[in-house]
Design goal:
Keywords: Membrane, Signal, Transmembrane, Transmembrane helix. The protein has 17 helices and seven strands. By secondary structure, the protein is mainly α. It starts with a helix and ends in a 5-residue tail after the last helix.
Amino acid sequence: MSFREFIFLCALLYIIVPECFAAPIEIQEAIEGQSSNQINKTKTYTILKTIVLGYFTHIMTIRPSPDTDQKNTLFWRIAFFVYPTMGIGTATTAILSACESDKILGIDIFQDFFAKRKEDALKKRGKGGMSWIAVFLSDIWDSIKCVFLQLLGALSIRTYTPNEKEPDKDPAEFQKEVDNLTEEIIEFEQANGRTLPREPDNVACLAAVLLVLKPRQARRVKHCILNSSLYLGFDLKDEEIETDKDKLICTEDMTITGSGSIHKYQAGVKPHSARYLTPTMLKQLQSAHYLDNTSYMGMCITFGQLAYTIIECVDADGDKWAKVIMIIYMIMSVLQTTSLWILHKQIAAFSIYYDKPINYEGSENYDKPINYRGSEDYDKQKDEDDIIINPMGDSSSLFEQIMPRLNDILYENSFLDKIVKQEALYPDNGYKTFTEHKYWAYMLSGFGGLTVSLLVGIWADYKAHSTTQWIVLAWILSPLLLIILTILQKVTITEKGILYSLSVYFIYLIGIAGAACVLAATVEGYSIKTE
């Protein structure tokens, strides 16, 4: 018999063989002691069950970080676990972005063309075409089938592709169709007297890419862009990125795929900036739909958490204020799961290679990049065709045939510079809509979360004045201190130093105190014997 088998046998005998004691001298004391011990075990089991099923399950429903960096995702999951109402911002932003997807991407200006194309397609296919309901139900069935096959061990997530019945088109054929459809969109808009945006705005090409893709594939590519899971991959020398080093993401820290994933650095493309990518880059979005990861497992977890919370709230055992925490977690889990259902997450970020010149050269006559010329360097009396380059990089020049485009060089206000700094390229409607959604979503996160939490307290009765009540109220109100401290840090501390480090440690300390409040309220609440 091996040592491992011996240990296993001892553990098995310890569990199976009943404990034996001598007859107690005082029967009543023995009965009371046994009863007290049983009660303590029951309370401990209830507390652990509440923490696992009521609190920890919420972690499984939190949206992952868009860059799919495990460290960032873990950080935010811990933060949203301690203060679940903080997740209202990300969940609401995702829902609003999905509802206003066309407006954010800028393709809403082609609604007339979309309607005409849809009408022509229905006439061509007759009754045989798939409606959006059929596509949605088919999508659900594919995902459920994937989950069950994984559980049965029939195949792994890496080998299963839900789109096997919808294979991708040949890249050359796909690009040709996109080019033809782009021209068709432009001709349609011009025929209706509309003025289309000029380069570098390629919104017509983006619309064509989404139209050439099948409905399910197009929806998943949209989700990838709207979820900020689209990146540009490029290489730079260390001496060229001193000022923006903290804004770049190293590829090795990410879970990422695509043509740009082999390069050293990544820069995130905001949804409203996708329209300004070159046609070559936009056409690479064809394969982004494979990264879609619908969270049906998260839905099952949320339904289980919802059922458990309802059962616990109906049960009279324990302080109601301890159950307020559980209700708040449940509400936030439902919101997070809803956002994941409306705007899907991705198993990895998608990177496109930035195939334009990045490094600039110095000029003999100018202490500026070689293609940078201020308007003062040219005669202002030019023909309309000879557009002057200005320092903001929002126009072209007659020299663009022999020099790189202004937007292709990495210096202040260039295309890639604004992408790296997460700034707006142009104040278009998509940028306005996206920023408004984020603003209102995070306002709702701060004040809406506090309001909902305090309203749940009405059910627990504010007249209770129990120890658990004060602990729970401290936990509910503590995010206000966290928000104020974060704002002060952003406004007053401009450089990273001792003061910045102290503020960060203090923020972490508030988080630890919040977690302690949750644990203390649960233990205190379930230690009370309710008659």
